[in-house]
């Protein structure tokens, strides 16, 4: 496992993102919608830096199964979402990979009557986009590698790491050999 971004680098990335959001949104009320489960750490750190009136809601999305490192079918659940009609919404996710998760969620939030939907991701994997949507706020561009930590998991583990690490193929094989697949909720 190789460290890609240290806790300090992630912290300054979050500060930069919060500043960019407030520069655009000003003091207007903002509903932050996090995508469970991978965004929990980004949301927790970001909202504490977003000065001003804020509501927080969560939705759930999953496109990976167990120890897969390439996405499968997209599964969305929005039953935890508060009423966002007429609200200015910031959709927050851990990583923009193919972009299919954010694209589907932005469409759904618009359909529910949000006045405006912007999206923010901590990470964007280079060369992987399959949609035309571009997130308004991107913390870091990273190479096309499977990453864990700071909320991101592999087969349910590693979300608690305070830094971001890339898993090499050897790491992935070793972890696959050691533990059965869990029902993923990335
Ligand atoms: P997308 O729909 O392909 O953009 O996939 C985005 C979702 O896949 C993110 O919300 C993550 O939860 C998950 N994901 C994509 N790449 C990685 C990775 O390298 N590590 C862990 N999770 C990932
Ligand atoms: Mg996710």
Describe the structure.
This protein has 186 residues and is α/β, with parallel strands linked by helices. 26% of the residues lie in helices and 30% in strands. It has helices at 7-25, 40-47, 100-111, 169-178; strands at residues 2-5, 30-36, 54-62, 75-77, 88-96, 116-125, 137-142, 146-148, 164-167. The chain has a six-stranded mixed β-sheet, sandwiched between helices. It has a three-stranded antiparallel β-sheet with strand order 1-9-8. The longest helix is centred in the N-terminal third of the chain and has 19 residues, at 7-25. It is globular and about 50 Å long.
Q: Helices, strands, pairings?
A:
Blueprint: E1 2-5, H1 7-25, E2 30-36, H2 40-47, E3 54-62, E4 75-77, E5 88-96, H3 100-111, E6 116-125, E7 137-142, E8 146-148, E9 164-167, H4 169-178
Parallel strand pairs: 2-3, 2-5, 5-6, 6-7
Antiparallel strand pairs: 1-9, 3-4, 8-9
Helix pairs in contact: 1-2
This protein binds inosinic acid (IMP) and magnesium ion.
């Amino acid at each position: 496992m190789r460290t890609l971004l240290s806790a300090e680098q992630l912290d300054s990335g979050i500060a930069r993102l919060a500043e960019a959001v407030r520069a655009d949104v000003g003091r207007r009320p903002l509903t932050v919608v996090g995508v469970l489960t991978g965004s929990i750490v980004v949301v927790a750190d970001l909202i504490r830096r977003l000065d001003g009136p804020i509501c927080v809601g969560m939705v759930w999305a999953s496109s990976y199964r167990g120890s897969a490192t390439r996405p499968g079918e997209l599964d969305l659940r929005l039953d935890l979402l508060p009423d966002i009609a007429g609200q200015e919404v910031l959709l927050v996710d851990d990583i923009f990979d193919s972009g299919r998760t954010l694209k589907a969620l932005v469409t759904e939030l618009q359909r529910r009557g949000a006045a405006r939907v912007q999206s923010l991701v901590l990470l964007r994997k280079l060369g992987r986009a399959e949609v035309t949507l571009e997130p308004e706020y991107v913390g870091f561009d990273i190479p096309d590698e499977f990453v864990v930590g700071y909320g991101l998991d592999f087969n349910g583990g590693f979300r608690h790491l305070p830094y971001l690490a890339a898993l090499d193929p050897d790491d992935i094989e070793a972890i696959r050999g050691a533990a059965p697949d869990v029902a993923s909720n990335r």
